[in-house]
Design brief:
Elements (H helix, E strand, L loop, with lengths): L1 H12 L10 H4 L4 H18 L19 E7 L9 H13 L4 E7 L5 H6 L3 E5 L15 E6 L3 H4 L6 H8 L3 E7 L13 H8 L8 H21 L5 H4 L3
Parallel strand pairs: 1-2, 1-3, 3-4, 4-5
Length: 241
């Protein structure tokens, strides 16, 4: 994470030392407009640094004139990865194939070229984890979907909402989350909440074909409807680097 922060700061401000980092507990003292300005600045500068148009890719349509929707599954290896990645991918792939203009991409977080992938993503679906920080480089009004192992909903506290808050302050849409109700090993003493959470924290994710299909279908419909009724200004018209 230290190198990630260093690279973002270099892209935004040049070769300057990072002397202080505002943690999420302090962000609450910033107004919503100020948070949005910071997100816009970092996004814009990072795109410039990587040789990408700060305005993003602009409006895309397919051969039938339907607006494109780029759905990216940002996967993990190891902790909080899917037990059966193919099953999870297929559930989203089938729903994407039913929507004109939908294009599915699958990326491993360890191999992520954030500048290109995030700029070309309208909907990001990923397990909870640090890789979601890269949502910062997506366009405003993009959508976020998250997956959690069992135990997070009841035991993780408000910290599990950190990327929900990040989406809000970056003017993105948090499109709910899925908490896996199953686990390979149950906590032997549910009264010991911390021990239970540490047991569940990095568990592998299963999948729910029915839930994933309905969830993907709903979010794709929401994004498609919003595209149809809204003509958003280009990012460069909203904010200047």
């Amino acid at each position: 994470m230290g190198l990630w922060i260093q690279n973002v700061m270099q892209a935004s401000f040049g070769q300057v030392p990072v002397e202080a980092v505002v943690m999420r507990h302090n962000v609450g003292k910033m107004g919503n407009q100020r948070k949005l300005q910071v997100s816009d600045l970092l996004r814009c500068k990072a795109r410039e640094f990587c040789g990408i148009n700060p305005a993003g890719r602009g409006k895309e349509v397919n051969v039938r004139g339907q607006p494109s929707i780029r759905l990216t599954l940002l996967m993990r290896r190891g902790s909080r990865s899917f037990k059966d990645p193919t099953a999870g991918i297929n559930a989203f792939s089938r729903q994407c194939a039913m929507v004109d203009g939908c294009m599915l991409g699958v990326v491993q977080s360890e191999d992520l070229n954030f500048s290109n992938v995030m700029t070309n993503t309208d909907i990001l679906a990923s397990p909870h984890g640090a890789q979601l920080t890269n949502m910062l480089f997506m366009d405003r009004n993009s959508s976020i979907m998250k997956f959690f192992p069992k135990g997070w909903l009841k035991l993780a506290g408000v910290g599990q909402n950190v990327y929900h808050w990040m989406a809000d302050q970056s003017s993105m849409k948090h499109r709910c989350a899925w908490w896996d109700p199953h686990t390979k090993k149950e906590c032997p003493d549910p009264t010991k909440q911390l021990e239970c959470f540490l047991l569940y924290k990095d568990g592998l994710l299963g999948h729910n074909e029915t839930y994933f299909a309905e969830w993907a279908r709903t979010v794709l419909k929401q994004v498609k409807n919003k595209q149809a009724r809204t003509n958003h200004p280009k990012f460069s018209e909203i904010f200047k680097c």
